[in-house]
Amino acid sequence: MDKKDQRINVTLFSTLEYEMVKALAALHGTSFSSVVAKGFSEWLKENFITELEFHRDAEIHLKKINGSAPTDNLFYKDEANFIHPWRGE
User: Fold this and answer.
1) DSSP character for 65?
2) Is the predicted pLDDT of residue 71 greater than 80, yes or no?
3) In angstroms, how far is CA 69 from the centroid of its own chain?
4) Contact 70, 62 (CB under 8 A)
5) Residues 11-14: contacts with CB within 8 Å, 24+ apart?
6) What's the per-residue H, E or C state across 11-64?
7) pTM for this entry
8) What is the mean pLDDT of residues 73-86?
9) DSSP at 66
10) Rg (Cα) of the chain, in Å, rounded?
11) What are phi and psi of 13, to 5 degrees?
12) How far apart are CA 18 and CA 57, in angstroms?
């Protein structure tokens, strides 16, 4: 990534995770940051769409139960007109 304003600082959840990242960086001869970036990139490829769809489904379910959905989600319009920003719709 070339743009410094597009960087994210990460704090791992445990010392064990830190030691695992440290070991992988040493094995690959790379930085801790590169190890975390690769891991997060792989997680996004596997989970991004599923996470968005899960939240959309939860909003639709809440709308059916309560007659309305939370209003703080910028992607939500209604069940028939759900915005898919990652699909360009």
Assistant:
1) H
2) no
3) 22
4) yes
5) 12/36
6) CCCCHHHHHHHHHHHHHHCCCHHHHHHHHHHHHHHHHHHHHHHHHHHHHHHHHH
7) 0.63
8) 54
9) H
10) 18
11) -75, -25
12) 34
